Amino acid sequence: MLESENAVDIHLEAIEVLLNHILYVRGIYPSQIFKKRRVYNTPVFVSIFPPLNNYLASILRSAREFLLRRELQCLVVIVYQKENEPLESYQLQMETLEGRGQSTTEDPHLMEFEQQLRSAIYKLSERLKQLPKLPAGSCQFKVHLHTTQDAYVRFSHDSQYQEFPWLQAQTAESQHSQSISLLPLARVENVGLKVQALIHS
């Protein structure tokens, strides 16, 4: 049996790959700060820019805590020029698969997981190519983690997360994407967790 921490770490790596992929393909940062590498036998571009890497690491560290407690509902990447005026967003929905995907006998070398991740990256790339170009050099992004009220209260009082505090998002901002929903475009469903990506623009 895979330990829950191992399963969570595997999925965090997949989430990190998808986050980097979105930032690279959408041109949020210059392409020069990304380096090509292979993850799970898949060629991907990942950031080599320390400030961005530190931000992503803090997000993933927080997401890991919620995933371990099965309290992370979804992770949303919001791209914007002006605060509270999002241009597009990417939602990674999380769902724990009770009693499924935990056994290493079903996928001992994570071959099925690799295939699903490759497919997710390919589908995501195809969808992103169809989106209009973002304004060059003027876009920013932020990440929202959706969890329960109880989890947020407990988390915000945990001293080990005080260096990277989280704020509760305004309701109006979290409901911005009323226009177009492209897809359930990418799905990774294995190792005890289903991750489904959607684009709103």
Form type: globular
Major beta sheet summary: 5 strands, antiparallel
Number of helices: 5
Number of domains: 1
Here the CATH topology equals Cell Cycle, Spindle Assembly Checkpoint Protein, Chain A
Q: Give the N-to-C terminal Cα separation.
A: 40 Å
Estimate percent helicity: 25-40%
Give the integer mean of the pLDDT values.
78
Based on CA atoms alone, the radius of gyration comes out at 17 Å
Main sheet strand line-up: 5-3-4-7-6
**Second rung of CATH, namely the architecture:** 2-Layer Sandwich
Beta-strand portion reads: 25-35%
Poorly predicted regions are 99-104, 172-186
Verbal overview:
The chain is an alpha+beta fold. The chain has one domain (4-167, 177-200): 2-Layer Sandwich (Cell Cycle, Spindle Assembly Checkpoint Protein, Chain A). The chain has helices spanning 4-25, 50-68, 111-129, 149-156, 171-174; strands at 34-39, 42-47, 74-82, 85-96, 140-146, 181-190, 193-200. The chain has a 5-stranded antiparallel β-sheet with strand order 5-3-4-7-6. Strands 1-2 form a two-stranded antiparallel sheet. A hairpin with a 2-residue loop joins β6 (181-190) and β7. α1 runs antiparallel to α2 (50-68) and α1 (4-25) runs parallel beside α3.
